[in-house]
Amino acid sequence: MRRLFWIITFSISMALVEAGVVIYLRALYYPEGFSFPLEMISIRHFVIEIGREAATILMLISVSALIGKKFWEKFAYFLICFGVWDIFYYIWLKITIGWPLSLLDWDILFLIPLPWIGPVIAPISVAIMMILAGLFILFLFKRGHDFRPSSLAWIMTIIGTLTILYSFMRDIGASLHQHMPLPYRYEALIAGEILYILAMFISWKNTVYKSG
After folding, report:
1. Quick check: 66 and 7 in contact, CB under 8 A?
2. Which candidate, 208, 205, 196, places its Cα nearest to that of 83?
């Protein structure tokens, strides 16, 4: 519980740092309020943003690696860290600038390797899945089971991840060419998350069976 407390504390703090940077960028490029179509940012700022996002992920990985002992325990803490960070990023934006007005508001989610866009509810739902998956793995460790995902679980997780990434990166016109976004593919998000749930269920059976 102490490790979990500190990983959550770090994630909430990092989320405020992230929100602060985004608030400054929006004040610079969207003084009238953030909306689509997107504004072109300078090459210099774009490169800095790419580096900042990569550094943020490395920070989340680093603190998770320091807290966890075995690989899957480290991975579980990373999932929790990432999920809490992502959710509190939006909470801090809501507290500080009153945005998003609703979970259906669109946002720029990430820039690597292409800009990710979608309604706020999409990354938040994925973040919740990540937190639950991380807690699930930690629960198995606490019960004396080493997490052992099967090959089928790996395949389902990879397909689910690619499906969700497709929903975020498919609209090149809106993300790169200043068009209004196409309707979001909620069915792709839901399909990906269902595959995540099934993969975790299969992994639970495989872990308990082999440990038993």
Report:
1. no
2. 196
Sequence ranges of the domains in the chain: 2-211
pLDDT of residue 101: 95
Q: Which residue has the tokens 């979608």?
A: 118
Res 68 pLDDT > 90: no
Which residues are within 8 A (CB) of 3 and not within 5 positions of it... i.e. 6 or more apart?
A: 67, 68, 77
Give CA torsion, residues 60, 148, 202, 86, to 10 deg: 0
Query: Does 100 sit behind a cis peptide bond, omega within 30 degrees of 0 on the bond before it?
Result: yes
Whether 48 contacts 109, CB under 8 Å: no
pLDDT in tens, 54-64: 999 999 999 99
125 token code pair: 């739902």
Phi, psi of 101 (to 5 degrees): -70, -30
User: CA-CA distances (angstroms) from residue 203 to 96, 155, 191, 206?
Assistant: 40, 12, 18, 5
Amino acid code (one letter) for 42: S
Tens of pLDDT, residues 71-128: 999 999 999 999 999 999 999 999 999 999 999 999 999 999 889 999 999 999 999 9
CB 45 within 8 A of CB 22: no
88's CB contacts (< 8 A; 6+ apart) are: 11, 12, 15, 16
Does residue 106 sit in helix, strand or coil?
strand
Distance CA 205, CA 208 (A): 5
Helix (H) or strand (E) holding 179: none
